[in-house]
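Input record (one chain):
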Amino acid sequence: MMMELELPQLDLRYEALRSRAPEREKKLLASLAQHGQQTPIVVVVGESDRRVVLDGYKRVRALRQLRQDTVQAMFWELPLAEALLLERLMRSSESDGPLEQGWLLRELYTRFSLSHEELARRFDKSQSWVSRRLALVEELPEEIQERVRRGDLCAHAAMKYLVPMA
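The corresponding structure, as predicted from the sequence alone:
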């Protein structure tokens, strides 16, 4: 179901599961300024009638920069854990790196109590793959992870050079 939402209605709790790419965000900002929003964000219902954003964090940031009050959104009627898994599986334009995979796995493991076995089954991976991704986000210091999220540090460099030092 499509709807128009006011930006303050949005719950951006999963924004930290994604890293930023400043150059791509600049291009998106220019496109939104010139053509308007072409693709809706994806939301599910959260607590207090707020809409939890699953996909569209770059669009929301760009719309805020453009001083827009509303965003076009597609509403999914799914439980939150199922919606997170589905959104990740459907995302094909860009591939998640190991850090982003680890952030999502950690969220599903801690918040929704999905076991390593269940996560491996849902992602069609081995339990070892799940354990390695979870260990990666546990070993890398949070301040480094935050720099990757903001796009200040390349995820590959953080994993290759900083994880061994951690």
